Amino acid sequence: MTTADDHWPETLQRVVAAMDFELTEEKVGTGTTKPSFLMQTTSNADFSNLPALVATAVHAGLEIDRKIAAPGPAYDAQARSVRQALVDALNRETPGSGRSPFVTGYATAYRIELARVLWAAIADAPRRRLQELAGETQG
Q1: pLDDT tens per residue, range 39-62
Q2: 18 near 26, Cβ under 8 Å?
């Protein structure tokens, strides 16, 4: 039996597929260790022709990423671990070179985790929960 919300897992996978991950200028771990850059998640895709809830889902995904990356107790330990593996891979890339297959693989794995965590956060009431999460990002 299908429901009105059956499309959301697939929609969220498409939303996170439009997200990109890049290093920031902010460094952590100075001193005796090689400093690492932090990662930020962005979405430069044009969602203007899509339903408003898709754009809201992008903002909600950015908020979930922020919560996963936040210090302290893990919002989702598995997603944080996959995100950290992506950050580490990005930090190992040679500046100015093209994207390595390893980074592409880690980014894909993190997108899957991000879609999973986002769906878990909104599954009980997708429209309302997306708007709540997006409001945290925009507010």
Answers
A1: 888 877 777 777 778 888 888 998
A2: no
Query: For residue 61, how many other CB atoms are within 10 A of its CB?
Result: 27
pTM for this model (two decimals): 0.82
Calpha distance 137→11 (Å, rounded):
20
Residue 100: Cβ-neighbour burial (10 angstroms; 0-12, 13-18, 19+): middle
Tokens of 92: 């190992």
- Cα dihedral: 34, 38, 43, 44 (round 10): -60
pLDDT digits (tens, 9 = 90+) for 92-128: 887 777 788 999 999 999 999 999 999 999 999 888 9
DSSP secondary structure code for residue 3 in this structure: -
d(CA 139, CA 113): 25
